[in-house]
Every structure is written in C-alpha cells, then in structure tokens.
Design goal:
The chain is α/β, with parallel strands linked by helices. Helix content is 31%, strand content 19%. It has two domains: 43 residues, no CATH class; 239 residues, no CATH class. It has a twelve-stranded mixed sheet. Strand 6, helix 8 and strand 7 form a beta-alpha-beta unit. Helix 1 crosses helix 3. It starts with 6 loop residues before the first helix and ends with a strand.
Length: 284
C-alpha cells in the first residue's frame, strides 16, 4: 500500500528543497500542478534584472506583474533592453509587498521619449513594507512628499551606490532617521566616515564595499580607522545582494558578525567568510 504524505508536510519538503538551491531546483515546479502552485510564491519572492544575473531565468516582464507582483519581496532593477526606465514605475506599482528594493540608475530618471523627469521617488510612497534600499541617494528631490518621507523613515538598511566625496553628497542620508545599516563605496574618505558616524549615531554597521569577482567576503584592515562599526568588505555586488535577499549570510549579516566579534575580542582584521552551497558560513 502506497504511503501518502500529508499535504502540509509535502508542501514543506518541496519548499525547503527549492530554497536550498533555487537555480538547480527550479524544475521541481514541473512535478505536479499542486507543487507548481506551492513554488510560484517562492520563485518570484526574489526578482533580479541585472547585466550579470537574471532571476527568474525566464525573465519577469511587466506583463506578468498583475498576477505575480504580489509575491515579490526583494527586487533588483537595472534598466536594460529588457526592462526600460519607463517600466520601473509599473514594477513599483504592482510590487506593493516589497521589503527590499535595489534601483540602479543615475538620477534624474527621465522618460526616454519625452525626456521629462519620471516621479519614481513618489512611487516609493506605495511601498508600506520597504525597509531595505539600494540606490543612488541623490535621486530624492527636495522637499519630499509626506508619503515618501514616511517610507524613508522606515528604512533601516541603505546601500548608497553613488560615490560620496563631500558632506554635501552625504546630506541625503539624513532623510533616513531609522538607519542602522549603511553601505558606501570604498573610495569614501576617512573624514567623511567620521562625519557620517557623528551625524547618524544610530548606525550599528557601516560597510565600506569593494567589488570582487566572487561572493567570498573578506574583512580587511582599515589602517588606522578604529571604530568597531566600520567594516571594509570585498564582495561581488549582485551576489552579495542576492545572498542577503535569500536569507543567507550576505554583507549585512557578515558586517553584524564582525562588529559583534570586535565587541567581544577587540579590533582584529584579515578574516574571511566563505559561503558554502547551503548558505551557511565559516570564518577562515
């Protein structure tokens, strides 16, 4: 007599199997109609449109948004030939359950046809659950609408991808009063780092990010900069973002681990964190 698993247990098994390796387990959705229905929310939980990485592999054109946008929690948008600048507003309109948004495009965002500015930042007011943001911080106009101000007041994790060379460049950071985690490019000078720490006292982790070819994260010596909250990390940009989005040990969690260790053991450097296939990590 064939044993039949309870649907709840079967659902759990397929969900865990898919999450363990989405790239190689996408085929599980073809096992049965019920499995496909279970996995669709997981497949579209993370959406990436980047020149180096597309997820889901079949793409996520705007035509799918009315049906599938509700499942998206983390989205990385880089305008390309597949996703136009003018499409970004459509994504932000339908993906209202976003908690994590990466938007890579220099400001101002303009309609390619009319060359008029696009009110992209105003659409952030439609994202009530957003807490993590990766973008050029100079895209925000002044003054901000009340709805956008409310969204920015809930952002705790901010990855500022544009270069910061003076305090004037940093002033948009003050639009984010709840910031606990901030990532800036490695070229940011020490004087600016001190100014950021002084003006944003609630920071737990300040990452100095340097690009790398793979997703091995390396803590490096800052040669004289002794604040325990500042962590210099080398990591592949899109790979690190996806690891964090999928609940693995990405740059944010790595930075938390480094800061926690420093508080226990004092300032040391040169340790590496290597992510294995299961998403766990090991300090080398």
């Amino acid at each position: 007599m064939t044993e039949i698993l309870p649907p709840e247990l079967e659902h759990l098994i397929f969900s865990l199997a898919f999450k363990s390796d989405p790239d190689n387990n996408l085929h599980l959705q073809c096992v049965a109609k019920r499995v496909h229905q279970w996995l669709v929310p997981l497949i579209y939980e993370v959406v990436i449109n980047h020149s180096d990485r597309d997820w889901p592999p079949s793409g996520f054109p705007p035509a799918k948004l009315p049906l599938l946008g509700q499942y998206v929690r983390h989205i990385f948008l880089q305008p390309t030939q597949d996703i136009l600048i003018s499409d970004i507003g459509t994504y932000l309109t339908f993906c209202r359950n976003l908690t994590n948004l990466a938007l890579l495009n220099p400001s101002p965002l303009r309609d390619p046809g009319s060359n008029t500015p696009l009110p992209i930042t105003e659409l952030l007011g439609n994202l009530p659950y957003l807490t993590e943001l990766t973008t050029h911080i100079n895209i925000f106009p002044s003054p901000l609408s009340e709805s956008v101000s409310q969204v920015l007041s809930r952002i705790t994790h901010l990855d500022a991808v544009n270069g910061l060379y003076s305090w004037e460049d940093c002033k948009p950071l003050l639009l984010f009063p709840a910031l606990t985690h901030l990532s800036v490019v490695y070229s940011t000078g020490y004087d600016l780092l001190y100014s950021i720490l002084q003006n944003i006292p609630g920071l737990w982790v300040l990452l100095l990010w340097q690009g790398a070819d793979d997703s091995t994260m390396v803590e490096c010596d800052l040669k004289g900069f002794q604040d325990e909250r500042v962590v210099y990390v080398e990591c592949n940009f899109i790979g690190g973002w996806e690891m964090s989005a999928r609940g693995m040990v990405g740059p944010w969690r790595f930075g938390e681990q480094v800061v926690a260790r420093r508080r226990r053991e004092g300032m040391t450097a040169g340790r590496k964190l290597k992510n294995n296939d299961s998403g766990s990590s090991q300090v080398l």
